[in-house]
Structure to design on (226 residues):
C-alpha cells in the first residue's frame, strides 16, 4: 500500500496571541479560579479590602476604586448576593491562597501507625530487635501500636503479656509517650505510643535539673514541741 506524502499545514504566526480569559483550561487544569477586573460581569458588587470603605458599589465605581489604588478588583465570592470583591494586588492574593492551601495540606497529613507484634513468651533477642524498630518509627514521627497475640491456651499467660508491654513502653519512654495502658481485646492485648515532640526531651531534662526551692529556715523564736 502506497503511503500518502506528508504535507505540513500552515504554520501559526509567531505574533499570534492566545485566547483571552483566565479560566481557560490547559491540560485539564485551570490556570486561575478567580475573575479579576474587566472579567467580572455583574452590575454591582460588595466591596471589601484593607484601604476601602466597605459597602455595595456599582461595578464601574468598584473598578475605579481599585484602579486609583493601582490594585486589582478580585471576585472572591461569586455566589453571594451581591457578589463579593476584594481590592488588593492579584499576585499577593494568589500567594496567600497557595500558602493557605499548603498549611491545610500539612494539617491534613495522614497519621502513620506502625504495628509491632509480640508473643507472650518473646525471647530477649526478638524483643531487642523489635525495640530497635519501634525507636526508629517514633523518631520518624509515626505512632507505634504494639500488641501481644495470645494463640490457643497462651491466653493463660495474659499477665505475662501485660508485663512485656509495660516493659516495652518503659524502654521507649525517651522517644514516645504511652497513650493507653494495656487493653485486652479478644486475643490481643494492645498499647499505643505517640512520638514525643523534639523539644519535649529538653524540657524534661530542664525540669529534672531545676534546683529545688530552698527550705524555709525555722525562726530561732519558733517554739519546739517536746
Amino acid at each position: 500500500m502506497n503511503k500518502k506524502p506528508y504535507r505540513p499545514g500552515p504554520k501559526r504566526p509567531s505574533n499570534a496571541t492566545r485566547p483571552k480569559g483566565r479560566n481557560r483550561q490547559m491540560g485539564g487544569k485551570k490556570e486561575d479560579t478567580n475573575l479579576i477586573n474587566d472579567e467580572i460581569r455583574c452590575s454591582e458588587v460588595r466591596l471589601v479590602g484593607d484601604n476601602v470603605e466597605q459597602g455595595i458599589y456599582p461595578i464601574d465605581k468598584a473598578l475605579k476604586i481599585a484602579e486609583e489604588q493601582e490594585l486589582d478588583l478580585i471576585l472572591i465570592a461569586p455566589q453571594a448576593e451581591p457578589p463579593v470583591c476584594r481590592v488588593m494586588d492579584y499576585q499577593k492574593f494568589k500567594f496567600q491562597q497557595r500558602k493557605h492551601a499548603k498549611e491545610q495540606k500539612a494539617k491534613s497529613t495522614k497519621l502513620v501507625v506502625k504495628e509491632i507484634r509480640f508473643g507472650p513468651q518473646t525471647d530477649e533477642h526478638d524483643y531487642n530487635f523489635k525495640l530497635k524498630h519501634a525507636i526508629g518509627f517514633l523518631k520518624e514521627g509515626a505512632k507505634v501500636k504494639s500488641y501481644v497475640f495470645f494463640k490457643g491456651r497462651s491466653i493463660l499467660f495474659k499477665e505475662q503479656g501485660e508485663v512485656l508491654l509495660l516493659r516495652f513502653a518503659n524502654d521507649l519512654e525517651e522517644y514516645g509517650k504511652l497513650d493507653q495502658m494495656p487493653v485486652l481485646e479478644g486475643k490481643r492485648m494492645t498499647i499505643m505510643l505517640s512520638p514525643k515532640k523534639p523539644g519535649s526531651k529538653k524540657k524534661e531534662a530542664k525540669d529534672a535539673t531545676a534546683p529545688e526551692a530552698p527550705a524555709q529556715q525555722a525562726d530561732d523564736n519558733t517554739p519546739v514541741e517536746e
In short: The CA atoms of residues 142 and 216 lie 47 Å apart. Residues 9-31, 213-226 have pLDDT under 50 and may be disordered. The longest strand covers residues 176-185.
